[in-house]
Amino acid sequence: MFSEYIHAALELAEYDKLEDGSLVATVPGLQGVIAIGDTFEECRRDLIEVIEEWIVARLQWGYSIPPIAGHTIDSSKEPVAVVE
Asked: How far apart are the C-alpha atoms of 82 and 70, rounded to whole Å?
């Protein structure tokens, strides 16, 4: 579920070159998701990590996660029972 969502986000990613030659990446619709790298590969790796952390943070805070290209991540608001 997460990997499909992240893959869809990467397909929408927008990359721009900064004055110092490094790259910055954002994903439209994912507020606060920003990655920077000296190369495209480094920027993309950073973007994957940032998206993963963004998803986890939103789940922890109980915020919704917007759908991307039909992919969604939903969290249950019900507590999970632990069976021992």
From this structure: 31
**pTM confidence score:** 0.85
Which CATH number covers residue 49? Answer: 3.30.160.250
**Which of 32, 76, 69, 71 is closest to 53 using CA atoms?**
32
Query: Coil, strand, or helix at residue 36?
Result: strand
pLDDT tens digits for 40-57?
999 999 999 999 999 999
Is 42 inside any structural domain? yes
In a domain? residue 47? yes
Single-letter residue type at 60: Q
- How many other CB atoms are there within 10 angstroms of residue 47's CB atom? 26
